[in-house]
Amino acid sequence: MSQPGMKLDSSLDKVPLFTVGWQLSQLPTEAKCLRRESKEPAMNPFQKNESKETLFSPVSTEEVPPRPPSLPKKPPPKICGSNYPLSIAFIVVNEFCERFSYYGMKAVLTLYFLYFLHWNADTSTSVYHAFSSLCYFTPILGATIADSWLGRFKTIVYLSLVYVLGHVIKSLGALPILGGQMVHTVLSLIGLSLIALGTGGIKPCVAAFGGDQFEEKHAEERSRYFSVFYLAINAGSLISTFITPMLRGDVQCFGEDCYALAFGVPGLLMVIALVVFLMGSKIYRKPPPEGNIATQVVKCIRFAISNRFKNRSGDLPKQQHWLDWAAEKYPKQLIMDVKALTRILFLYIPLPMFWALLDQQGSRWTLQATRMNGNLGSFVLQPDQMQVLNPFLVLIFIPLFDLVIYRLISKCGIKFSSLRKMAVGMILACLAFAVAAVVEIKINEMAPPQPGPQEIFLQVLNLADDEVKVTVLGDENNSLLVESIKSFQKMPHYSKLHLKTKSQDFHFNLKYHNLSVYTKHSVEERNWYSLIIRESGKSISSMMVKDAENKPQTSHKAGTTAVRFVNTLHKEVNISLGADISLSVGEDYGVSAYRTVQRGEYPAMRCQTKDKDFSLNLGLLDFGAAYLFVIANRTNQGPQAWKMEDIPANKMSVAWQLPQYALVTAGEVMFSVTGLEFSYSQAPSSMKSVLQAAWLLTVAVGNIIVLVVAQFGGLVQWAEFILFSCLLLVVCLIFSVMGYYYVPLKPEDIQGPADKQIPHTQGNMINLETKKTRL
């Protein structure tokens, strides 16, 4: 592409094309940070024009004045005799551990809300996106603290301590033995708030601090350092997103999924990150804080607006542009740069909707995966492990698009501009959510029906030694089954019964041999019940057992299955379901509550009574199913388990999510990477830090959109997916119209006079700017 800052330096041709995939793959946040380090370093255009009358002296965090005398003149130690400072090794390891910490914790966050704190899906989604949004607001605070007060080193250290404290509190909130649900909720929210402050606060500082370690003459090494830096980011993300769901699901703590371990390991990695960072303290180059250009931009805009309204009388001549009203206080070059900035910010207005869709991979799409079958043959995938597809596919798609797709389009004579690429990226995200809606509809078709108002679902378990005919007395409900229910007959499904009120008494007639037994049971609407018929001497009796309050949610717990037992023996039975899972079932038709266990084969479960030990073969317990086991001694082979499937297993494979992940990731590559390239090519050097902040804010606003829709939309899931898809399509049309009338700036229009006077070797980052090296 012809815009400045978008061509690869010839000396880096063998590196950047693939490493760009590493650099911009995982998050737009990191991409912003490093692109800022690469592009922003150009000398501030206002520095040369400073005068006594100038009331504003703009400075940037990446400005490159001569080093203060206090800095050591001795060259920093190098890595193995190369031109790479030894200090960057500590920074890269720190970034790997920090990204492992953040993404590892976030990977299991939605399921933690749903299954540990027992929030509903909408609340879990809302809090997840509120946390994500806060993580993109706090970088502005971190950058301000670093640039105007503490400097980058101290900011990273202090906010990392806050980060570690947040992880500790978050892990404590996941311990079942520590208080009740209110305590867990409070600790979780406090921990997440501190984590958001820590991760967001250090986000704009770490990459820039790494760039500070290089001498001015080693610009090429600095470029390659950023490639390694992004490799660390994506390596941490990939590994943690794959490992932490395994720590959650494969390890049992206190008889449940081990969320405390899944949060504790990322917390430990953050401690390691801080320790490693401090180990390099004595060899770091630590430039002092130099001021924040974003503050001056806000002041300039505010002054222009206020001055415009003060002079509405018409006594003064009209200005060509509303920002020209700031000319009496701020230099012309600043006003020109702010004008260029506002042109790009105008194009940013539609962008949050794209992030609203992209960031739902960790919330709505993960919840969708919990209702699918994760068995892929030789490997069983946890629902929250599906998120690893995004960074993995990004690493494949970026070189694929750069080397193949874009070149083929160019050879066909099609002008595929940056704004067109972004629009196509939006369309791909629309298609991804349309596919997600189709998958959701298919899941709903395979799922068991839900009882509505004034309805219940009832199944009959005949544990007597002969068949029984069950009839519900009343006008609306006829016989449950046309044929009699045989002894230990497996019911094909639940039967729906209609109620006249929200709760009522049902009268049943049970015909057994030559006996007619009448019984009465109370039920409430929207519930599942099991009518258990048992022997009582020469007659029979019945008992009504209320099944789980929300059986589908209980049985579809992420990567697990649910079991319960009915004990027909005359002695209490203790059943061991695993290392930390056991339950007791009372004698004489005692019924246990549902317990969740991991999916798998259970050929010999150890059971105990007061005077006897025996084992039960439970067979395969599949994803999302709910099973009932009746412990009975009907043969001379000892007690055995009679198995019934209350809720069928998830039938739809989680592999059906692959198309939607592929589409949204392709959209991300075309939208995010291209958007950053375009923005940086169109913004003046002095405005790149402000542009980074604005890009972060679009991500934050996108997460707020999801929060609002999830909390107040009230739509079924497939309809919500369609809504987001349609909204983004409308936004894409608006963005296309805006892009059609946008006139790209030429390099000579972007560079101010001061830019052209900068020597080629001056400043800490000048080489990256003048050579137009793209990271």
Task: Describe the 3D structure.
It is a multi-pass membrane protein. Belongs to the major facilitator superfamily. Proton-dependent oligopeptide transporter (POT/PTR) (TC 2.A.17) family. The chain crosses the membrane at residues 100-121, 127-146, 158-179, 185-206, 227-247, 259-279, 340-358, 388-409, 421-439, 693-714, 721-743. There is one protein chain. The chain is an alpha+beta fold. Helix content is 49%, strand content 14%. The chain is built from 22 helices and 20 strands. Strands 10, 13, 14, 19 and 20 form a 5-stranded mixed sheet that branches. Strands 5-3-8-9 form a 4-stranded mixed sheet, with no helix packed on it. A 4-stranded antiparallel sheet has the order 12-11-16-17, with no helix packed on it. Strand 19 (626-632) and strand 20 (640-647) form a beta hairpin. Helix 2 (28-39) packs antiparallel against helix 18 (688-712) and helix 3 (87-107) runs parallel beside helix 8 (219-250). The chain is elongated. Residues 1-65, 550-556 and 752-775 have low confidence and may be disordered.
